[in-house]
Amino acid sequence: MAVSARPRQALAIVGAIGLALSATACGTGSSSNGGSSNADSAECAPYEDYQGHEGKTVNIYSSIRDIEADRLAESWKQFEDCTGITINHEGSGEFEAQLPVRVDGGNAPDLAFIPQPGLLARFAERNQLKPASAETKAMAEQNYSPDWLKYSTVNGTFYGAPLGSNVKSFVWYSPKMFQENGWTVPTTWDQMIQLSDTIAQSDVKPWCAGIESGDATGWPATDWIEDVMLRTQTPEVYDQWTTHEIPFNDPRVAEALDRAGTILKNDKYVNGGFGGVRSIATTSFQEAGVPITQGKCALHRQASFYANQWPEGTRVAEDGDVFAFYFPAIDPAKGKPVLGGGEFVTAFADRPEVQAVQTYLASGEYANSRAKIGDWVSANNKVDLANVANPIDKLSVEILQDDSTVFRFDGSDLMPAAVGAGTFWKGMVDWINGGNTASVLQGIESSWK
């Protein structure tokens, strides 16, 4: 079932009204047509430090598309109107593949939202990225924990703050389906397997999954492996794995892959609404959870951002059509590890207007502006929970702002791009399609130079 495009149309109407109101609030001019903005108005006071660049344009390239891209445009529109800077954003489903082509070919964007620290490091090590300005660095240090900033620091140089963030350790389900069948949300791995066995005896498949994502096909399966690694091993071993201090085919990695396989490669468990195990490789990640709303599957492991992928009219709430629970730990006594990700605002140009936009996107003002629009998560510690309406997003922000959370960044995004966004992604497709654990892991290990 294709996800309806109607929410995007509705959002465009709402966004247009919001943009018109913000343009009126900030003055008669508009940065998009080169007019002057009323920088002295009260509504424009938060943008005072970014003045002096009227008529300039900043180009941004990212993987953010469709509804999410519309929301981005809305989130920084008042900044545009109050500073006179025009922000041109281009989202692409082939971002990871095309960004290196553009950069190496001399056609780099001014800014890019890079979700893989490994890819970020690739550009930094080739001196293709511009270090963040002192203003951006200071803003980032005020608003983000050192754990987050280390992911965009290469050889001691800081390149940019996070933008959006996400919590990946969630399992989506239908509260109504659970209630009607007397199922209980599991709090341990064993309980989750017992529940899966119970559901498998009904007419509903316990799990649905999909890892097709264009040039990025395979990444949802890597998230499974990383989440399980955090549950079978210590955070320190996880770090050793992502930095290649232990080989990719280490027995501890094989253990995590095999445990994930007890669900993903189990014909009794998958793939509700789509077919057998191999249908996972050809099912798009955007549509993979939709069978829950059709009563064809019960569980779908996916990140907080999946709240944006449900069909029109789907209510996300604890008593709604869909909700999510924490992907259970194997041994809760060892704490609750959380896998997550995000994108980093990195610069390929250091013009003053580019630096101004990069600094603003690291600010609390921007984070709250985007949060108010909805369906967004940030690790920015200035985010006011009152601005976060979606209950899954609110839970995610609470987790990210909790100092006791054992957080680790998406492992494939930390690895060198050729591995994390290359052989690891492809290896997971091979694995789903029948490849055995040893050969798949050996192939990935052989690619790590």
TrEMBL record:
Endpoints of the signal sequence: 1-25
Highest taxon, organism lineage: Bacteria
Keywords: Signal, Transport
PROSITE patterns: PROKAR_LIPOPROTEIN
Pfam families (alphabetical): SBP_bac_1
Database matches in InterPro entries: Bact_solute-bd_prot1, SBP
Similarity comment: family membership: Belongs to the bacterial solute-binding protein 1 family.
Protein name stated in the entry: Alpha-glucoside ABC transporter substrate-binding protein
Source organism per UniProt: Micromonospora sediminimaris
Higher taxonomy: Bacteria, Bacillati, Actinomycetota, Actinomycetes, Micromonosporales
